[in-house]
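for ur thesis appendix - Beta-lactamase-related domain-containing protein. copy paste whatever u need, i formatted it the way the template wanted (i think)
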Amino acid sequence: AQTVFPATRQAMMSSLASKPLLFSPGTAIRYTQTNYVVLTALLEAHYGKPYPQIVQQRIFEKLKMKHTWLGLAALPEKRVAKAYSGSNGQLKKLDDALWPAYGYGHTGLHSTVEDLTLFMQAMSRGELVGKASLQGFWQPQHLANGERIWPATGWDLGESGSYSEVGHDGGTHVRLRILFNGTLDGDVYTIAYLTNGSARNVWSGTLVDSVMARIAPEKFPAEAAAESLRAFAFATPKDDTATAAEVRSV
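the 3d part is after this line
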């Protein structure tokens, strides 16, 4: 069944106004989307125009992202790939949630891998936000007790050897990642990975780790080792000897 959302942003805010906090600010973290609704409202107040128009003018048109849309209304139906999830090794079709327009700050984006690559490359080059600002944002965040948490101003943050990695995912279907060694002026990789699902429900982070292992195994040895282990685990009997030798060489 489709999730029913409050009809307007004000209705959503009103429905939350009397709800108690789940925890004191700075003491825990939960994955949610309400902060992006607030950010969208702030942007609309600042620019005096709807969020889709802001994004269209300041990002899509600027970067020549000609195959990217917010929401379903303007989406060319014949261009859309069907999404699936895996269940007991079988594919099950997923229906697109009917997100309200006030939620477009966190969802409802439809794009191609080429357009997403344009966006990620522009980010890493400092064309949308300055490099110094980005590297200030992309710093480890901690709770009041000192525990490190994974997000950094809306981006997933991690490391792979000497490389920092930032990005975000859409579960088993999409993963965007920027990897840089030290600074954004050094060695930088941008990865955009899209899939419409798999029978095994493979997590998108695993798929991008596999890409890293393929493109630069000497720079990402942990991912290369994990890829070899996966190859060994899924090998047919006739491949075992060769794959075992490969695993030993990592």
